[in-house]
Amino acid sequence: MANLNRIFHALPRPLKPIALPYQLIARALHAIGPKRLYTRALLIILLPIIILQSVLVFVFMERHYELVSQRMSEAVVREIAAMVYVLENYPQDENYALIENMGSRVLGLSVSILPLEPLPSPAPKPYFDVIDFGLSRAISTSIGKPFWIDTVGNSRFVEIRIQLKENILRIFARRSQTYASNSHIFLVWMFTTSLVLVSIAMLFLRNQIKPVVRLAEAAESFGKGRPTERLRPSGAREIRQASQAFIEMRRRIERQIEQRTTMLAGVSHDLRTILTRFRLQLALLEANPETDGLRRDVDEMSHMLEDYLAFARGDGDEEVQEVDVALMLEELEEEAEISGVDIQARYEGEPMVQLRRNAIKRCLANLATNAAKFGEKVQVNGALKQGWLTITVDDDGPGIPAEQREDAFRPFHRLDLSRNQDMPGSGLGLAIARDIARGHGGEIYLEDSPLGGLRARLRLPM
């Protein structure tokens, strides 16, 4: 749809009114059409078959069925015309035995001669009755005498009355003599074979769609940080190439993460060694205001170093496991209470979910610590609904203006507001939290809090 909009806007101005109906139809079809690949591919197979069969049925009913029925009606009328001719031009006995025997034995019709009387009133005719239309036209053309026919009802016979000069000729003919009664066999065979072919196509199509579904599930699992070792290239050549490209991409990313983790481990070891030397040297000095300030600087540097390494390392080295989120929130509340921070935590729904426990706990700790810095009251609420784990962290602090909330996630960025003035820290808390959330396929949103401050909403797919 986005490509269609770009093409439409790129058209010259004179062509836009011509392309506008096409764009509107395309948007409507996109809105009401199926979204799954299997359904769309099935429609690509079904729609041509349905259109082709509709055309064949129309042509068959319009040409073959009506033409054959017309020829059969004309044949019956010619036989009736022959009997009318015999009655009017050759003398008959009183019982009309000759003409009746001729009709029953030779022509296969039940014939009787009635006294002259007015013909019955015409009965209501079906709008699409091929028999009535064909017989009426043939009798009018071939015989040209007043007549009455009865083709209505479920009877297997058709009654025809012809008004002669001195009597009424009544004929009963089988319905199968006046129209093509076996035409439904063509329709049955056509729809049956189509149904069989569509069923076979559905089976083959499902097998072709499965590799695409497995590739999509593997990509989704990899985006959520879950293992994808079960993916094996299968299906058509293009799908195999896409699966192999995904596997190679995953391996390159994993190698890059492994190399970065190894490098950071070495950097962390070297920097911690230097900070340990600083602490030992400060421990040998006498306590005075200068050394106390140096100790605070060393502690803050150590804390900042841990933040930098955590941000650079990410959470790729931790395995996904089943975690009790309700218990994790209780631990977060207890640890905050030990640190002198009042946090109220509550959870609803199924507590057991699949995620990286330490990473998510660090994410929530960063959000809660950030809220506790600027507010006196902090509430943490979690719930699992409709396949999404949502955890909100609310505070009653000064909040962040809506136009600057996205900047708060930038690494090393400190907002020049009352929320960040004279506050220690590395400026990585929210950046680390969002990185962890996105590593699970989720996101963190900053919103207005019901408490009057800022709300951080963590949303993860399960």
TrEMBL record:
It is an enzyme of class 2 (transferase). Its main location: membrane. Keywords: ATP-binding, Cell inner membrane, Cell membrane, Kinase, Membrane, Nucleotide-binding, Phosphoprotein, Transferase, Transmembrane, Transmembrane helix, Two-component regulatory system. Residues 266-462 form the Histidine kinase domain. Residues 206-258 form the HAMP domain. GO terms for molecular function: ATP binding; phosphorelay sensor kinase activity. Its EC number is 2.7.13.3. InterPro entries: 2C_sensor_his_kinase (IPR050980), HAMP_dom (IPR003660), HATPase_C_sf (IPR036890), HATPase_dom (IPR003594), His_kinase_dom (IPR005467), HisK_dim/P_dom (IPR003661), HisK_dim/P_sf (IPR036097), Sig_transdc_His_kin-like_C (IPR004358). It is a multi-pass membrane protein. The keyword Kinase applies. The chain crosses the membrane at residues 41-61, 184-205. Pfam families: HAMP, HATPase_c, HisKA. It comes from the Bacteria. It is found in: Cell inner membrane. It catalyses: ATP + protein L-histidine = ADP + protein N-phospho-L-histidine. Signal peptide: none annotated. The keyword Hydrolase does not apply. One of its GO terms (cellular component) is plasma membrane. This is histidine kinase. The lineage of its organism: Bacteria, Pseudomonadati, Pseudomonadota, Alphaproteobacteria, Hyphomicrobiales.
